[in-house]
Amino acid sequence: MGDVKLEHVSKHYDDVTAVDDMNLEINDGEFICLVGPSGCGKSTTMEMIAGLTIPSEGKVFIGDREVTNLPPKDRGVAMVFQNIALFPHMDVYDNISFGLRLRNYDKEEIDRRVERASEIVQLGGMLERMPDEMSGGQRQRVAIARAIVRNPDVFLMDEPLANLDAKLRVHMRTELQRLHKELDTTIVYVTHDQAEAMTMSDRIAVIDSGQLQQIDPPLVCYNEPANLFVAGFIGSPSMNFLDGEITENGFVSTNIDVEFDPANVGVEVGRDVTMGIRPEDVYLVQNERQVANPTHRIEATTDVLEPMGDEIFVYLKLAEEAHADLEEASVAANDQLLMSVSPDSDIEEDRDVEVVLDRTRVHLFDTETGIALSHGIESTIQASGPADAEAESDD
Ligand code: ADP
Fold first, then answer.
1. Of the candidates 14, 19, 293, 302, which lies 20 to 30 Å from 35 by C-alpha distance?
2. Residue to substitute in 13, 14, 52, 156 for testing ligand 1 pocket (most ligand atoms within 8 angstroms of CB)
3. Euclidean distance between CA atoms 151 and 106, whole angstroms
């Protein structure tokens, strides 16, 4: 069985805590990506599952066995790394079968496994090629086949596509998804690339500073990020953030206000909050009708435009909101907002525009702790209608 469980696992190196009290449950057959910035502890977490690193604290389970102190060979795992270490003097067949030959499997069994694995990674006709006669992508497939022949319960992959060029990387992503479907085996995959994590995994484990921030399906991490870190890390370009505070009228900041009844969102008046909105949830006022529940119009000036082909990124400079109830000094001004518009838009640089935000896509976070307070504020406003009416009729 390929479930993997980390129970209160930490790893300290002198005064560096690489992994900090990690609790992780990976289901049998799941494709999980460990994702986070460089140095956040992804590889160390993976190495503790693999048995290459022993935790300072906590326990590791694979299936129903505790494996915390077992060597890698006794864990039923197979690893694929970023640096593909193929034996240069061996052909593809010998590279794939090396581990099996070392373990004295009989020739027929080795042939059978190599044939199946090489078919899965589509290297069937290349078993006699030498590594230097192959492309980077083909060599990486040999490395994956070498892992497949071991029939592991769990595949561990640490940035296996990092050294490939962009096009091949995208192609290999699809191959890995196909491989996962075909093998129906647990895959734990380390990457710093959130796009890779979003496209391949059943669930993403987002890690920062050695701590698990959120583990959820990709779209849940995208639409309902648990905190500011996940909100900023998942999605490219990143979510816009504006610091402000909660008043009787909702969120106010130097540059953007969003009206709502704080009681309906469950946030108390006076709290410092950070509002988040993704670039695709900011609309030019002429497209306002595409938004079911827009905010009031916000004045801005277009700054730099970045045409991407399928969309244009527009950097906006915001005008100051005119309101009296904000304690100016308490809120840092952020007059930048990134908007994405369709490529057929006739937008130009240095123009005065008005934009609206989709209220259902407005996120609120506690500024101090970073914890998410609310994702979308439309439903709570609408829900307040009938509830209020009921309360009134009760009177
Ligand atoms: P990631 O894979 O997310 O880039 P790592 O797990 O490699 O991060 O590293 C997490 C932290 O632990 C980093 O600060 C790194 O410098 C530190 N670290 C990792 N391995 C060692 C080691 N063998 N000795 C000392 N520090 C280490």
1. 14
2. 13
3. 15
